[in-house]
Amino acid sequence: MKVHWRKGADAALAEAKTNKKPLLMDFSAAPA
Amino acid sequence: MPLAAHIKERPAYFHRFDALWTPSVLILDPNGEERYRIEGYLPVDEFRAQLEMGLARVAFMSKDFADAERRYAAILDRYANTKAAPEALYWKGVSHYKATNDHTVLGELPGMFRQQYPDSIWAMKTAAWEH
Predict the structure, then answer these.
(1) Is the minimum CB–CB distance between B35 and chain A shorter than 8 Å?
(2) Is position B71 within any domain?
């Protein structure tokens, strides 16, 4: 299953609120 | 809903969300309140269990105690051998109590911990409920 990673926090927070879904934020410094 | 924040692409997010170490995974409720944080690498099953603990915590903190109890029970079922299991057992009992006001479940926990997770810090936290 392909994961749709959001990149913008404000848009993701708004989307989470609208859809009443939790938000998972992955903070990484690993090389791409 | 997942959001990726790489330090080279989104350094401001690290400051905004107090991410001082990587990897860090934050689980926020739908209103943007942080409810759970996982810092450091974990084996796959431990990580999955922690993610589920985060979602259970979201349910608990939103006072959906029946959903929280179901989620903690599922963690115990799927990840019984992980480090998350004792904490899940504790919060499953608390969630049941909060959902039903039936305090007898709390009195049963010390014995369950003695049998299953006697060395866990969560066992200590239930000792006061011993009859």
Answers:
(1) yes
(2) yes
> Domain tally for chain B?
1
CATH number at residue B53: 1.25.40.10
Q: For residue range B14-64, list pLDDT tens digits in order.
A: 999 999 999 999 999 999 999 999 999 999 999 999 999 999 999 999 999
Query: Could you count the other beta carbons within 10 Å of the beta carbon of residue B101?
Result: 7
Q: Hey, are the CB atoms on B7 and A22 less than 8 Å from each other?
A: no
Query: Which residues of A are less than 8 Å from B14 in CB distance?
Result: 27
Q: Is residue B35 part of a domain?
A: no
> What order do you get walking across the sheet with A23-28 strand by strand?
B2-6, A23-28, B24-28, B34-39
Decide if B84 is inside a domain.
Answer: yes
Q: What confidence tens digit (pLDDT) does each residue in A1-32 have?
A: 889 999 899 999 999 999 999 999 999 998 86
CA distance B29 to chain A (A): 5
Q: Which of residues 45-74 of B touch A (CB under 8 A)?
A: 51, 54-55, 58
